[in-house]
Specification:
alpha+beta; 3 domains; eight-stranded mixed beta sheet; three-stranded antiparallel beta sheet
């Protein structure tokens, strides 16, 4: 018996009868596997796991044929493609996973939902609990995370120390004369499971770049992306381990790769993502990865703008100082500290651009600076 026969003859088969017909059971399993609702193989053994996947399909496609296979379910199984399956509405709160997913949604990024459909995310300048740090150069002060979304609710199921940037060694001794590579914030479908060789030092399983990404070239060696030229292509920007190097010394672990600090943490990461259903179906599957600047998550909204004023400090202040200097308003030392010199330069810039000269960086000032 085949699904086409069930449809043509308007039959009704309970799950027990499906299980007794190996040809029919195998056909249904094959289609459920193609829809990523069931893991292979299609062996004709229609047990509890196959039954659960079958019922999930009926629920998603609203077959209204509870506890049996009828012509409606048969037709939908034959015709439904993966892109046709609905996804649950996102249910987002104020937790860190929700803030990250909201940022991804606001940016129009791909968001994967369902059992063992994983979202790989790196957040630059953030601690494990979601606190924003100073993002000091040469530190493993970024996060590598895996997020799973079940019934619309996101949860972080992996969270490790990482770096999204090269440290002192390769910034000051770049492998490319145009400058060290710093991946551009965004989302890329560009990595597959493979081996990271890294010049021959401890080859190990990793996610290796196999699709184009965009990066900045830090030619002026200021450890920033601001003003740096970009290029898109294949650069061997892999996701590998950081050789258990100290938290405060990236050293040779990254020349621009996305790097988890610890070997064991990286092994956990690889074990987890290799359970992804899409990889299980296709060992050459290209994984999406999203790279986010931690400051964008501070208020839980990617569209927010951080307020800066006298007494503020950190990488955003340093970007502000650099932009003021570029525009001819000298803030003094580019030290990331919002002091009197920065305030005076900012007020002069605001006055010259028809803004309220209050010495505070809000949305209008960010926009005038070209940093919004």
């Amino acid at each position: 018996m085949k699904l086409q026969d069930v449809l043509a003859k308007k039959l009704k088969y309970g799950v027990e009868k499906i299980a007794s017909d190996k040809e029919l059971a195998t056909q249904i399993q094959t289609l459920l596997i193609m829809l990523q609702l069931l893991d292979p193989p299609a062996d004709g053994k229609f047990g509890p796991i196959s039954v659960a996947a079958f019922k999930e399909f009926q629920t998603l496609t609203k077959c209204n044929e509870p506890e049996y296979l009828g012509p409606v379910t048969a037709e939908k199984l034959i015709e439904t493609k993966l892109k046709d399956l609905p996804t649950p509405e996102l249910k987002l709160g104020n937790d860190l996973a929700s803030r990250i997913v909201k940022h991804m949604k606001d940016k129009g990024y791909q968001i994967s939902q369902g059992i063992r459909h994983y979202n790989i995310v790196y957040v630059e300048g953030m601690d494990a609990d979601g606190s924003i740090n100073e993002d000091s150069p040469n530190y493993f002060n970024d996060r590598r995370m895996v997020i799973q979304i079940l019934d619309g609710v996101p949860a972080i199921i992996g969270n490790w120390e990482a770096t999204t940037e090269p440290g002192y060694h390769y910034t000051e001794n770049p492998m490319n004369p145009s400058g060290a590579a710093r991946i551009k914030f965004g989302q890329y479908k560009a990595w597959r499971v493979g081996i990271h060789y890294g010049g021959g030092a401890e080859p190990h399983e990793a996610l290796v770049q196999d699709g184009p990404i965009t990066l900045h070239r830090d030619f002026n060696q200021d450890y920033q992306r601001l003003g740096d030229k970009t290029e898109t292509g294949l650069f061997d920007i892999n996701q590998h381990w950081g050789f258990d190097l100290p938290y405060n010394d990236i050293y040779y672990a990254s020349a621009g790769c996305l790097v988890g600090r610890l070997r064991e943490g990286h092994r956990e990461f690889m074990r987890l993502i290799k359970q992804d259903r899409r990889y299980q179906l296709n060992k050459d599957y290209l994984f999406y990865t999203t790279v986010i600047y931690g400051q964008d998550l501070m208020s839980g909204s990617s569209g927010s703008v951080q307020l800066l004023k006298e007494g503020s400090s950190g990488p955003l202040v340093k970007q502000l100082q650099q932009r003021l200097k570029d525009k001819g308003f000298n803030p003094g030392n580019l030290d990331g500290v919002f002091g009197l010199g920065t305030k005076a330069a900012l007020r002069a810039f605001q006055k010259a651009n028809g803004l309220e000269a209050d010495g505070i960086v809000g949305q209008k000032t960010w926009k005038a600076l070209g940093l919004s």
